[in-house]
Amino acid sequence: MTPPPDRDPLALDLEPRPEPEAREAAPTPARPPARRGPALSWPRRLVVAGLLAAVAAVTALSLRPRREPPLPVQLATAQKSAITRKVTAAGKLQAATTVKVSSNISGDLLELPVREGDRVRKGQLLARIEARRYAAQVKQQEALRAGASADLAAERVLIARLEQDLGRVKRLTAGGNASQAEVDRALADLRAEQAKADAAAERIAQADAALADARHLLSFSTVASPIDGIVVTRAKQVGERVRGSDLNEDPIVTIATLSAMEAKVEVGEHEVVYLHEGDPAEVEIDAFPDRKFPAQVIEVAKNALVKNPGTEAEVTTFPVRLALTAAAAGSLPGMSCQATISTETHRDAVVVPIQAVTVRTEKELAGAAQGAPGAAPPAGAPAPAAFARPRREPLRKVVFVVEGGVAKARPVETGLADESAIEIVSGLKEGEQVVEGPYKALSRELKSGKPVKQEQPDGGGR
Length: 462
What we know:
23 strands, 6-stranded antiparallel beta barrel, 6-stranded mixed β-sheet, alpha+beta, CATH 2.40.50.100
């Protein structure tokens, strides 16, 4: 249809248009009714409620912190008994008396009638050395002594004659037949001869001394045993040359008194301070493993033996001699042995097994006292320097006392100790139970306040 001429065709048609006729409303289809399940019976509702309650209880229990299980340990009771400090050391057997027999003169060994293991008596012939030179010296000194004796005899004869002459001159002088000068001359001659006689007597004494020395040297050609004992070493053979010298030792044989044996052991510097002469001991010889021989300390050396000086393996020990008070039949010098020396005994001491005493740091003990193993340092404590060298924390000896199924660390002071027990000087009373094992629990796992239970002998918990 053509718009009227007086109307702009681009103008908006703002006039209201007539609304179209309302469409005839279509009928809405009807929804089917919702299906409803069968209603739960009261027994089923109770079962569901019980399941929900069980799930809630299990969830609540899983969220609660679990109680720490008790640690299986071995317990011991502190008792009163006598305890003895014992020091153990290892060493070697040696004869109580050992003599190295050497020669005082040099020469070829002509005779050696003894062998190793032979029993000898004091004064018995051990060796004979070639001594022709010393025999010749004896003869020479004997000749010199004989010559001096002859000179003395001649002087005595001459003195007797001069004494007679002097008496005759004196009588002539008294009768006026001789002068005083003749008397004086006769007296001088007599005195001169008497001096010569005195010199001859001194030469005899000198010859006697030289002869005695020569005979003494000649006696060295036979070597005799200085003691009763057994030949343990034969260092020379017939035909060898021995060197007699006061500076160099050249033993021919070694004799030892095996009837009396000693043990020479080395004791550490931390234990030697407890030893005294006369302390009783027991010696175990490796060759006789089932026997113990009583002994006694007879010497504690004052000179130290330092091994590996200046290194990390440096060890300082002191030699200690023990005399076996009972015969050790069959023992020989050089056999290995171990000595157990009893140094001190305390009566009625509170003792526990030695493995029950362990160590803890001061920090661990302080944390246990505050209820927190890693307790923070107190307020106001100086903070450690960033680059400070860590200090070694001091250690305290403790035992874990069991009270009401809980182990509590208790610092103690210890005293004497033997192979299996240790004395508690303070910190523990008789009758209290302490943890004595196992080692892993005592050294690492066990802390103050930890629940424990006694372990069965077969290893199972009770």
